[in-house]
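For reproducibility, we list the full input for the zinc ion complex.
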Amino acid sequence: MRPLCVLCVLCGLSSLPFALEREAFNIAKYDLQITLEPGQQRLGARGKITLRNDSAQPQKIVALQISSSLNWRSIRVDGKPVQFVSQPYISDIDHTGALSEAIVTLPVEIRPKDSVELEIGYEGVITLDTTRLTRFGVPEDVAKHSSWDQISPTFTAVRGAGYVAWYPITTESADFSEGNSLFEVADRWKKREAGSEFKARVSMDREGGEIPPLLICTSASESLIEQTGRSQRTNAECFWDKFGTATPTFAMARYDNWFKSPLNLLSLPGHEAGAETYSAAFEPASKFVSGWFGQPTAPIAIADLADPHSPPFESGTLLMASMAAEDSKLAGINLVHELVHSALPSPRPWVYEGLAHFAEAMYRQQQGGREAALDLLGLHRAAFLDSEKEVSAALQKNVGQKSTGQKSVGQPLIGTFDETYYRSKAAYVWWMLRDMIGDDALKQAIGKYRAADDNDKDPKYVEQLVESAAKRDLGWFFDDWVYQDRGLPDFRVQSVHPWKTEKEVQMITVTLENLGNAGAEVPFKITFEGGEITKRIEVRAKATATTRVELPGTATQIVVNDGSVPESDLTNNEFKISPP
Ligand SMILES: [Zn+2]
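The corresponding predicted structure, in tokenized form, follows.
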């Protein structure tokens, strides 16, 4: 391969008589055998993938990519080797900052929507690599905590696309330094692959003797051990009939396994106290989740990370989080999150992840009150604030040309694969719905939600469940928050008029204005001599709403929004009422 590879780099692909459409093919099906050699930090792969032409033109060339620390060994179609050239392709989608790309010439042209099966083989090493972060200016000692993927004799953990391309992908180059380019490419890949089937058997051979390490891939997979004479083979099966938002990830370590259905709790030696904290938090978390989302039955797993400073990572129902600390609050919300997944599967990321993050906030409220819950939600606000401000600005620009502006801006929640939206914004949307319709109605709607039988194919499925439970028209809310991305609301007190009735009862007339393009029902707090009172009012996009409130004393101040509605500008929410 070497000479070809060098040639390719030297002349570039510009000499080839075609424009390479890297995202023309999707990988609709994977069936891989992965062999790990932890001593050498090696991975070997062979298997089959099915490529589907999702472009509008017939295609004869496909660009298959794996991590740059892996090398292509063979590619065959119908049992015959096919011609391919291998080249490095710079892209921050992999932790090494580059991919090994095989430019494959297929024996025949594949028509749009048609598929072709390839037999593939590749191998190489996966070591801790911070290149894509350090190249971008992140200090090495910071980068290594978040870039923790590696195969090693003591602790192996490797995340898939977006971290390490340990299975083939087909993407355009992603760049960390170019705004959102990396996330755009990674999100687009996830969306393209959401319906794909993935199967991989990950194995590790060793001489018998001591207790073998545990190998996991999905929350449902158990380490299976085959003994042949003196040698042992440890296997784990990774399987998704549809990816959804999952990122295939495997881990191998001397885990202790604490099991209580549906939870596999895998902790590392030395983290016993942290694991204890999790097991103590399990029953109360389980009870809480059952009350809102039904009985958790599907398997979930929480697996320890070797580096206590590593941020957690989630793929489907597998959460990787360090158990080094004994943090019962964190253990509680992590358990609640995974248990919601166990109880309520959904093909829609904003439902699946949004509900799990919303449940974390509700659990926090149960333990520490509404303010504690809103503080937790508040940590999500920054994640989508900037992109929503851009959406607002774009909408502002388009006001004059609304009739022509058919192209939707931003990320409508209903179909997004952008994590900041389907996790953070979605958590707020569920919280606002709960504030609007109350616990009982929302529980009833959630209780009727069924992911099976493709119920949630109709975009209005969730709206209908919520509306029929609440007996209230919420079409405007779903339009502004779920079906479209209209940015965020921006509330202010437009006017305040204190007055007295004939019977000397103190009244106040309050007019609130929403300067944003998304409407919401927002709480506002009136402070008066001797106390305060909170009311709620619906203020549609670019509109005002007026209400009258009876008060036991003279009003001194009004504050709109307690933080439960994500807003673009929080600096204009206070209004001091000067004495008459
Ligand atoms: Zn989740």
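The CA atoms of residues 523 and 562 lie 7 Å apart. Residues 314, 337, 341, 353, 356 surround zinc ion (CB under 6 Å). Both points were considered when choosing residues for closer inspection.
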